[in-house]
What we know:
This protein is mainly beta. It has one domain (19-145). The protein is built from 1 helix and 10 strands; from the N terminus they run H-E-E-E-E-E-E-E-E-E-E.
Amino acid sequence: MAHAAQDPHPDIDHWLGNHHQVSDAKDGDAIHVFAIEHGTLYGTADNTKTYEVSFGLGPITIRIVIVIDFTKKTITVCVYGKLPFLPEFKIACGSGSLTDGITLKFNFKVISGTFTFYIKDKWLWLHYDVSVLGKHWKGDIKLIPLPYLA
């Protein structure tokens, strides 16, 4: 009896269910947020987690690398931008207290404004107030769950 070949690639619906959410922006547009957690490859795992989150605001794709130390209760964030046909560029980086949150301010020709990262209901949230190529966006996005918080 012949066995059906198993698809070597995971089902995209299953992956999206675990790594994608839709956040409603105040202007009525949906913001699709994609997130992954990076694990320890070698050595022993500690109480630090690294996440990568991406979403789009108009023509720009925002990629955020987040490192959280749950023992020290610190957060380090680097934000990158990508416009069509141009290479990715660093928008801002910063570190601070996980409980107090951090705000990154930036001003480039294509993007300017602030990103504020804060904790609410055991989730890491982003408050954004930015202009991209002359269009303004403002709102809050639920980024990643943090069930490890006490």
